[in-house]
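=== Structure Prediction Worksheet ===
Name of assembly: unnamed complex
Input type: mixed (protein and possibly other molecules)
Chain count: two
Listed entries:
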Amino acid sequence: MKTYLNCIPCFVQQTLTACRFVTDDESVHESVLRDVLAMLKDIDMHQTPPAMAMRVYRLIRQRTGREDPYQDVKDQTTREVLRLLPDLRRQVRQAADPFTMAVRFAIGGNTIDCGVGHEITLATVGKAFEHALDGPLDGDVGEFQAATRAARSILYVADNAGEIVADRLLIEQLPAGRVTLAVRGRAVLNDATRADAEAAGYDDRIEIIDNGSDAPGTVLQECSDAFRRRFAEADLIIAKGQGNFETLSDAEGNIFFLFKVKCPVISHHTGCPMGHLLVRKNAAAPR
Amino acid sequence: MKTYLNCIPCFVQQTLTACRFVTDDESVHESVLRDVLAMLKDIDMHQTPPAMAMRVYRLIRQRTGREDPYQDVKDQTTREVLRLLPDLRRQVRQAADPFTMAVRFAIGGNTIDCGVGHEITLATVGKAFEHALDGPLDGDVGEFQAATRAARSILYVADNAGEIVADRLLIEQLPAGRVTLAVRGRAVLNDATRADAEAAGYDDRIEIIDNGSDAPGTVLQECSDAFRRRFAEADLIIAKGQGNFETLSDAEGNIFFLFKVKCPVISHHTGCPMGHLLVRKNAAAPR
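=== Predicted Assembly ===
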């Protein structure tokens, strides 16, 4: 997905929000903001929003020297979803349609996002799963479930810390031994890295790979050769979150996107109302 | 008032909003947006927000060739407030404190602003005056009223079209023959010009001057010598709206600002909650 003009003021606002999250030094806020404005004035609108956001967060990292300012938030949300997990799992087991319920909770976890909209609190984490129980879910879950049954290899491209705990519920519904979990190669925002996946309680029955990149999404040309090979070889890719949708919506492959619609640009692009849970097959998927 | 970092994303958003209001040509939206980003990256944060906004609207005017794209909106809101005026005047007359009621309606009219926040509709114009009836009003109206009684000459610096109709109610409470009404020198946003003041029903009992400038506020160094002289000579200045507050809050003189708090930056700067009606004396006022 390309960057829309409406993304530009949002980038500027996110820059300020992120700078303030990372440091109280207003001179850093101002200098990063000016550099981001300079980048934005020449931005290639054909690149995806996360490709641009990656450059913003690199700048913040360079200026502050802080490698992973979101680590505390990530740890807190991980602990909170781990605390909720037994109850969520019980609800999946007791559901008339456990697969759909697991999809709902996996997408519900996608609310735990520091990139778009409001601040995360532990209270909003709990509410996200409550909303996922009966909130509107768009897309063909049956087609998605059939695709998971047909696939010999599934690459599950995770999004955020905390969310990745809830992803366990959906992965438990997938054919055992066929799933590889992919995380970011380096800390960016509250996106899940290998350490966050390990903290989320994945054990050695599932292979975890990282994509070698620090984009808050999957910018394939920024990813490692190893990741790209795994991506190309997978029968099915499950991509979580807006950032992965924005970066992979035009990619080749058999991809299902699972995310919550969290911004007006994505709502417009998908034709799906704000706040809806969405299961969406990529347009370029093979028949 | 200086420009705050939080004003920057708002400038970018306002640029897009204004461009879309003026033309459907997306290439114009993009090109103006890039130029504004280039201006913002080097912005002098000590200038006021309207001084920056003036440059943005000049760019839009240059690119589109449209001198007054807000003329229709201005005419509509003028007609709407003229329609409401007899009833508002009756409420002022019947009020226990007609002066305060007139202040409330004059500030209520300040809701009619295309620069900040949501779009104006004729329904919101009516609601603005309803809210002004009993909404929270901060500031010392008694001190303001005493200042109007003591002044031999009053310069009433207007803000927006439509609003300027409601200003008549307050001007009717001021000592007759002492008030000069000042408007913008050129169309910018929905700010009132001489033509809008005339459409608002001011007759020749009140002198109307323009400030010679196209800023959505009163940037004194952009104003005509004639206006600056009148500004310096006035015993009392009544300045309506956020734009005039942002540009004149540090000016010398005996100034009372009357406006509705419409953005988080102004709320922070004044210590007054969003949505409140505010009467505020300038800090540099003589004792």
